[in-house]
Amino acid sequence: MRRIGITGGIGTGKTIVSRLFAVLGVPVYDADTRAKWVMHHNKALRQELLEAFGPATYTNAGELDRTYLASMVFNNPQRLELLNSLVHPHVGKDFEVWAASHADKPYVLKEAALMFESESWRQMDEVITVYAPLALRLQRLLQRDTHRTEADIKAILARQLSEEEKMRRAQHVIFNDDKQLIIPQVLSLHEQFSKAGA
Q: How many CB atoms lie within 10 A of CB 20?
């Protein structure tokens, strides 16, 4: 079974592309969603987060206080790096267990915004980057995330690896630029990965 990573900066449309693969019957691991689950349920990680960020990291009911944690790492690269260094190894282990449960499939997908930044690309056989030009991404994000300003979005983009660098590191690129249809691109890669993993 092959492991295919799928990444792309905020607003590129990687989640839409992942959903298209899911429609084709491909198991998709959403790293962001699973990270939240692991932060709630993994006792070792809970302890690590409490030691690093203090008792306010979890509410009295035992729920992760995401607002508090976000305020701790926002505009603080060292704390953000610390958070990622604690969470990503546990998510990597969670992915291994999940992937093993789909060993009968030709391939699985792992969707992660920080595929290269977190080094999780090393677990993958190949990586797809979903690309969209900056102006189009800004337009999409301002429509989608109405609570964010253009300055907020640009601050998030500035913290992510550039699209050009992601394209350079990936083995495959899907263009979601409103010029090329994405379904034929997904079908072509699906056929390729299915044959390779069969």
A: 18
Q: Would the pLDDT of 156 be above 80?
A: no
pLDDT of 159 > 80? The answer is: no
Tokens found for residue 20: 């298209």
Rounded CA separation 122/105 (Å): 20
Does 129 appear as a known binding residue?
no
The structural domains of the chain, with segments of one domain joined by +, span: 1-27+102-198, 31-88
CATH topology of domain 1-27+102-198: Rossmann fold (3.40.50)
pLDDT band with cut points at 50, 70 and 90 for residue 197: low
Helices (H) and strands (E) in the chain, counts: 9, 5
33 is in an annotated binding site: no
Q: Is 59 labelled as part of a ligand binding site? A: no
